[in-house]
Design a protein that fits this description.
With about 140 residues, the protein is mostly beta strands. About 10% of the residues lie in helices and about 50% in strands. It is globular and about 35 Å long. The protein has one domain: Distorted Sandwich (Protein Yojf, Chain: A). The protein contains one helix and seven strands; from the N terminus they run βαββββββ. It has a six-stranded antiparallel β-barrel.
Length: about 140
């Protein structure tokens, strides 16, 4: 037997993916601070967002747009995570994940951030994938005004 099957949105073992990616869960009390850190590190990097459910599988919502920011708002009924990207002209779009129960970062064996995974109470997983893995102590080398 090949072992238990994984949902379609579980990307481990797919071509081009590091088979030994690890998930680092962020404690709820650190969501805001850690997402602020990720924003500073990844601002303007191209990102894609997939929405994943057991019933509908994986649906691409955003493809290769520059990241503007990540933020979280916690409440007694669950958290909300906001993911903002730049789009044509001076516009922007924001994906909002409601009822958030878990926030994790997918990292390569060397510690490079590959994706932000946001799990919601209804079973939805939102995956924000960085086009290029980013090492925690590096940036894109571009200065900001």
């Amino acid at each position: 037997m090949l072992g238990p099957s994984r949902p379609e949105w579980d990307l481990r073992g797919q071509p081009g993916r590091d088979r030994s990616m690890t998930l680092v869960e962020i404690p709820p009390e650190r969501w805001s601070a850690r997402l602020d850190e990720l924003t500073r590190l990844h601002e303007w990097w191209l990102v894609s967002i997939d929405i994943c459910t057991d019933r509908e599988g994986r649906r691409r919502e955003v493809t290769n747009l520059p990241l503007l920011g990540l933020s979280a708002d916690r409440s007694a009924t669950g958290g909300t995570v906001f993911m903002s990207m730049a789009c044509a002209g001076d516009g922007h779009i924001t994906h909002v994940a409601h009822g958030v129960t878990r926030v994790s970062i997918e990292q390569s064996t060397g510690g490079a951030d590959a994706a932000l995974l946001v799990d919601s109470a209804d079973g939805t997983r939102t995956v924000l994938r960085f086009r290029t893995e980013v090492w925690p102590d590096t940036g894109d080398g571009l200065g900001r005004a």
